[in-house]
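Problem: given the chain below (118 residues), write out its structure.
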Amino acid sequence: MKRTGRLLYFLFAVAGAVCMLMVSGVARTNETETVADAGRIYNQRCASCHGRDGRGRTRKGRQTHARDMTAPGWQDDVSDERLFNSISNGRGKMPAFRKTVSENDIDALVAYVRRLRR
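Solution.
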């Protein structure tokens, strides 16, 4: 009886460990997909002004005075909340995206902009 109980305990422990590994793999896959989606959205909606590298050195970016989002000083000064609000509501000549981009995608864009830091 004791041996059967230990065997069942061992099997449940192994099954639990396998499930945890599978879940962590799914989380990494979802994180990778989120980064890819954010990059796609950024390239579609933001790169024409801010540039693919985030420096704002495009013709349209120079005309609209697009922010250099790679600057460490700016990255330090701006909060995630402000980035979220700027993307949602627009800022200056930047259009609002709240009606065309979901809140989850805006969160992913905020994280993407953070990765642009030099």
